Amino acid sequence: MSNNPSSKVELTSRNYLAEAKMRNHFAVIDEPLDKGGDDNGPTPVEYLLTAIGGCVAITLRMYAERKGWDLGKITVNVNQKQELTPNGIKKSLIEEISFEKEVTEEQRAKLLEIAAKCPVAKMVKEATEIDSKITS
Question: What domain of life does the native source organism fall in (predicted)?
Fold first, then answer.
């Protein structure tokens, strides 16, 4: 088995309902009713936001454990922001991180630096190359 993460997504014949398989796990992807879907699951963008939030939280927990810091529960809220600019719509992400336990200003600064090292967020920030091809 390869160590490279992968996901297989199949779009069903039901509007925009897709089924995804990752290792031994399954997920459903859909669009909301007002976008032509049946709202059977999160949208692709919602999964991306979730992936970033999950990765940031896990990255912070791993770092805190190595440092012996008890952060308690880590919460990461990731939201997409859209603004109309003279060049069209600009999209960005807002990431809000909070900890159940108190952290010092020094810890806060270091944790913010570590959060930026989350591999999923780095993939998005660095515009990871995607090599697309059609196979039979």
Answer: Bacteria
